[in-house]
Amino acid sequence: MRILLVEDNVELANWIAKLLRSDNFAVDCVYDGEDADHALRVHEFSLVILDLSLPKMDGLEVLRRLRQRKNTVPVIILTANSSLRGRVSGLDEGADDYLAKPFEIAELEARIRVQLRRANNLATPTISYGDITFDLRTREFSIGDKTLTLTPREHAVLEFLIHKAGKTVSKSQICDNVFDFDDEADQSAIEVYVHRLRKKIEGSGVQIKTLRGLGYALQCNEDREP
């Protein structure tokens, strides 16, 4: 899952990003409103963490433009402005949640999990497909009672595939959700991650099928090709 973090305090942004990356999120950081607006126009994100007090363009204007483009990505406002008026303004412009600074990272992580669960229409904090289970609370994959050991990139690919289980996704779609701004996106690398994942999920009743010219699909062994 790819998150856009918009925060003009570089030290705070880097701290949050480091912690979220340790949870196997791909995190892009931008430090002003204009860069945020541009990123949201050209890239797809699973969630946005947005400060309101930004240089060049304030966070409310970024949010307003985002919603005017009919983009429904979940947005958590993160700001020092904890007044009722500030909260109401953000929610009225289309924010999904609001967290005032200072905050505990555990609360931010919990709010992220809630928004991702809502965005994916999940009634429970786990996703199961075949014998594979993904726990959104611990962000761990397991097969039966055995935890899967995955690299961050393998985790990102499998997470994207399980959210799209049964559907065909292209290499470019996977790249957009696996690589952040600081990475050099390489579609050929996706083939390597898929090859490794196929070995690691053997015996799970699930396979990653290659659909020539289209991409990949996570399917239960008894599923028909989409």
UniProtKB/TrEMBL annotation:
Record-linked InterPro entries: CheY-like_superfamily, OmpR/PhoB-type_DNA-bd, Sig_transdc_resp-reg_receiver, WalR-like, WH-like_DNA-bd_sf
Annotated DNA-binding residue span(s): 124-220
Stretches assigned to the Response regulatory domain: 2-116
Superkingdom field: Bacteria
GO biological process: regulation of DNA-templated transcription
Residues modified to 4-aspartylphosphate: 51
Domain OmpR/PhoB-type: 124-220
Cellular component terms (Gene Ontology): cytosol; protein-DNA complex
Classification via Pfam families: Response_reg, Trans_reg_C
Keywords: DNA-binding, Phosphoprotein, Transcription, Transcription regulation, Two-component regulatory system
GO terms assigned for molecular function: phosphorelay response regulator activity; transcription cis-regulatory region binding
UniProt-listed PANTHER family: REGULATOR OF RPOS, TRANSCRIPTIONAL REGULATORY PROTEIN TCTD
This protein's name: DNA-binding response regulator
Organism from which the protein derives: Telmatospirillum siberiense
